[in-house]
Design brief:
Blueprint lengths: L1 E2 L32 H5 L6 E10 L2 E9 L5 E4 L1 H4 L4 E6 L2 E11 L4 E6 L21 E6 L9 E17 L6 E10 L11 E3 L5 E9 L9 E6 H12 L8 E2 L3 E2 L2 E5 L7 E6 L4 H5 L6 E5 L2 E2 L3 H9 L6 E7 L5 E7 L1 E2 L2
Parallel strand pairs: 1-2
Antiparallel strand pairs: 2-3, 2-5, 3-4, 4-7, 5-6, 6-7, 6-14, 8-9, 8-11, 9-10, 10-13, 11-12, 12-13, 15-22, 16-17, 17-18, 18-19, 18-20, 20-21
Length: 339
Amino acid sequence: MGMGPFPPLRLALIALATIFALVAPAAPAAAAPGDPIEAAAAAEPAVVRIDTTVDYQGVIGVGTGTVLDPGGQVLTNFHVVQGADRITGTVAGQTFPAFLVGYNRDRDVAIIQLAGAAGLPVAAIGDSNALVPGEPVVALGNAMGTDAPLTREVGTVTGFGRTVTAEDTLTGSSDELTGLIEFAAPVRAGDSGGPLVNGAGQVVGITTAASVNFRMGPGGKGFAIPINDVMGVAGQIQAGVPSDTVHIGPPVLLGVGVRTTTRDESGVLIQDVMVGGPADLAGLVAGDVLLVLDGVSLDSTDRLTSVLDRHYPGDVLDMTWIDVGGQTRTGKAVLTPTP
């Protein structure tokens, strides 16, 4: 995903795009005896193919979502739509422009709204607590692109409570996603955000990361957020209730591209500053080290994004930084919405 006339790293909109390290397997898994794909077919009409564009470098992305209500609210991963300047969703033979309703970055959950949608098929929601090891599941996704058939990755549940690491390729930082279902199916990048479906055709998780370990034989590992965890977050977003973890609407803009400092010191290194953005107007320049934002000491880029996620356009945040000359400076940034 990419971004327009702004300099590289655009600036943590801080919608810095989190990209999971995903490796395509050598061959797709075959359907298990009894053909769980037949059961998963019940969920397919509610699967949304998501296409995104981020103007920085003109990069496009694909992902998957699930219709939660006939009016077009769609469940997906936050990393699928993070930083996108344009989002479209294709479902039931129709393509809609979409916008971000809200998200929980830590759980990698987002809700998008398909503008003008009505009468869409809705997925049946199952009980992830009822899953057992060895149970057949199917991950439905958009890994082959919106004009191709849905991917139908068949596998079995192999574990619960798993933790995976997601890497942000722009900042070099990494986040841990915990409490995940592990299943043996070779899901790929475009499958992210799509439904994990049980033998009753019910959604029991949303696929959020994958890795392939060829030492384990054909196929690989998939990971999904349990749907019981997801629906609590989704309900809060749909109700428009913000919290320390749930942000309603798109992320706010500080207008900096950042990296964690390379030496054993506090703060985050400012690599780029968007001309006319909040940080620029406050006096920050490339090479400065931002130490404190809104009273919070910054020890990583993740801490910076977590502070911003608690705020909305118009909020004024105090900042402390060390400028390129080594002097400690303070200022205020008036946050704006992302373009």
